[in-house]
UniProtKB/TrEMBL annotation:
Origin: domain of life: Bacteria
UniProt keyword Signal, yes or no: yes
Keywords, sorted A to Z: Signal
Signal peptide (residue range): 1-22
Region (Disordered): 161-180
Species this protein is from: Caulobacter flavus
Protein name: SbsA Ig-like domain-containing protein
Amino acid sequence: MRIAVLALPVLAALAVAGGALAQQSRPEPTPVSPVTVMPPTQPPKVTATWPAAGQAVAPGILILKVSFDQKMLPNAWNYAAVAGGEKPECVRAPRLLNDGRTFVLLCSTKPGKSYAVAFNGVREGGFANEAENPALSAELAFTTSRDPSVYTLRSAMKAASLKDDEGPVQEAPKLVATTP
């Protein structure tokens, strides 16, 4: 019993000393500016598209897909018409998929037509990587066959090899009503 009583003050002293050592070894916080500095990057390049260049696809609903070799900004993009074909009728803005490299755009095409699209035909305000370095310009030309048209979004997603969560249109989050 006497050993236990003597041990308590020794343990208390060790706890205080340990706390003091822990406080001494902890560095003081350093304020950090909210500026992010990105290292220099190469301009992003198109690595894949759907349809592929020169491919003939079924007319109707089409999901134009373009992938880059780097992670991209979600709100920086530019699709333009080019000589050699029509520009497909598309919704205004593409969606950047979760991989950060692939954009999908919901479009409509007609049978037996030639289409041509430029990516970053106008470099200012166009596709850019996370460091805001604009992508190199690229063109895509494809045709539509006279096969039966694609009429459903699910069929268009399957043709573009997209998963269920990679649709070209994303629903806005539901608003939660608050009471005052």
